[in-house]
Specification:
The protein is 84% helix and 0% strand. The chain is mainly α and 190 residues long. The chain has one domain. The relative contact order is 0.26.
Length: 190
Amino acid sequence: MEGLAAFGAAFALVALLELGDKTQLLVISLAAKHPPLPVAMGAFLGEASVTAIAVTIGIAIASVVDVFLLQLASGAIFIVLGVWNLRPREAEETEGAEIARPFVNAAGLAFLAELGDKTMLAVIALSGALQAPASVFLGASIALLGMILVAIAVGRVLRRFLTARWLQLVSAATFIVAGVLVIAEALLSG
């Protein structure tokens, strides 16, 4: 049943699950390198999209999609992105790319990070158990937005203290570690 209890349960559970999660680490990494608004908007779009999928499909997704394979694929993609991040960069970018790339990167990476993640599984379980899709979606989405804003603040602080080369290395390491964590989580739970 829709209501404040379902909203609160989703908010509290998702906030706890996301604290220090790989998605938060990815957003920190992106925020350290790019303007905060496109990163925030992209990350929220990616995470809210996965939350909508989880709420809409509910418990049925577990019987249709093998979460283990989703996690392995997501982990491998993160590792590839981390290695890709180590490549030499061109010095100048166009202004449009400066805004579009962080938005698209944040949206895609947040979507991949949350796909098959424990947060997605929690939202599936909550929406099925509570039969309150709107309340669960709103509670989970607001919790995710809060975690994104915290991650961006941390990323902006790091930007002040790290050189461009260190940011590149930290970003690459973050993606590689996130990929390894996703694969490890899949192997341990599968």
